[in-house]
Amino acid sequence: MTLTGNSTYYEDFEPGQVFRHVRGKTMCENDNVGITLQVLNTAQGHFNEDALRETYGKRLQFGGVTIAMVIGLAMQDTGENALAELALDRIRLKAPVFHGDTLYAFTEVLERSDGDRDDAGEVLFRHWGVNQKDEIVFEGERKVLIKRRSHFL
User: Is the pTM value of this prediction over 0.90?
Assistant: First the structure.
């Protein structure tokens, strides 16, 4: 099921729902070099093709970018009415991502709880990303405080 639309309030999420998010993103050179250097990650796997000839054969995308990209692709549906990001947990980078790979995001609603606020509740999501070959490249859980529809203004 794809979601993008108005059904992104706390009440709209039910445990067991699974979403395939509409957007995809082809990873480009700037995703690897620009962002990776900005966070001062200088690992050879991201910058030294010669060192990788015998293993992967080409440079790897930085895992932090893979995580951010997959969650970013899910945000229109799972974060549009978010008031706070509460946790990011159980992170697993399952397969390498390379320049030119296209990522797609999926989400499962694991839990929904009232939390401490009248205007919002907590939703626990499991996110995962796949590449163009349908290989899972990332999975993780994210807890979000999401506005209730009843408090929309």
Answer: no
